[in-house]
UniProtKB/TrEMBL annotation:
Residue ranges occupied by any HTH merR-type domain in the UniProt entry: 38-91
InterPro entries: DNA-bd_dom_put_sf, MerR-type_HTH_dom, MerR_fam
GO MF term set: DNA binding; DNA-binding transcription factor activity
Taxonomic lineage: Bacteria, Bacillati, Actinomycetota, Actinomycetes, Micrococcales
SMART domains: HTH_MERR
Annotated keywords: DNA-binding
Tagged with keyword DNA-binding: yes
Keyword Transit peptide listed: no
Designated name of the protein: Transcriptional regulator
Pfam families recorded: MerR_1
Length: 230
């Protein structure tokens, strides 16, 4: 059964969107979404945009709904593409991602947010001076105009640790460890990305993401073990 079979039929009069317009529509919820990711999902049969006689991709509103479902299922439920595809073939996009029995993951509760500096401080319950301290020790990027769910999670966790006496200056080793782990993951994922091949770059991005989640899970499990030993 083709991957497109579960999609609702589109009216011939329905306007088609360029890849740039699709990225713009989804940018607020998925700020890191890139052309390569869409090409990769297409190569895996998750979306099937139409092609113009000149070869340009054109996306329907149904394609956008399907993309949003796939991206949410990956981000919020940590389902591999094979499982997402099977679910779409059986149920389409009319079911909520949250109704899928999920494999638990450390980022499963993150929701899409877009905050300016003052909003980030307000949502995390800290003063802006605390954000400056996090920037000083490399926990937050400097100069960003807007922040997402990951930055909010960092500030909130750092606030909780600071309340117990572990201030940002004490957490530099965590930042250094994260940098080393990211370098390790990129070095493993890089060979999967062939120069000039958008689908391969998208595959490498997904592969790196999955490795990162596995490493986070391993780190958490090892930390719990060491705390029990103490």
């Amino acid at each position: 059964m083709p991957a497109s079979a579960s999609r609702r039929p589109s009216s011939p009069a329905t306007s088609r969107l360029s890849i740039g317009q699709v990225l713009e529509i989804l940018r607020d919820e998925f700020p890191d979404l890139a052309h390569s990711k869409l090409h990769y999902l297409e190569s895996e049969g998750l979306i099937t945009p139409e092609r113009t006689p000149s070869g340009y991709r054109k996306y329907s509103r149904d394609d956008v709904d399907r993309l949003r479902f796939v991206l949410r299922a990956q981000r919020d439920r940590f389902w591999p593409l094979k499982v997402i595809k099977e679910h779409l073939l059986e149920h389409g996009v009319d079911s909520e991602v949250t109704s899928i029995a999920s494999r638990p993951g450390p980022s499963a509760t993150l929701q899409a947010v877009r905050l300016d500096r003052r909003g980030l401080a307000r949502e995390a319950g800290v003063e802006e001076e605390f954000l400056a301290e996090l920037e000083q020790f490399g926990m937050l990027p400097e100069g960003d105009l807007f922040y997402g769910a990951t930055e909010l999670e960092i500030v909130t966790a750092a606030r909780d640790l600071a309340d117990e006496g572990l201030h940002p200056r004490h957490l530099v080793m965590l930042r250094t460890a994260a940098e080393r782990e990211a370098h390790m993951i990129r070095s493993v994922a890089r060979p999967r990305s062939r120069s000039g091949d958008s689908a391969a770059r998208g595959e490498a991005e997904d592969f790196a993401r999955d490795l990162g989640e596995s490493m986070i899970s391993l780190h958490g499990a090892m930390l719990r073990t060491k705390l029990r030993e103490g």
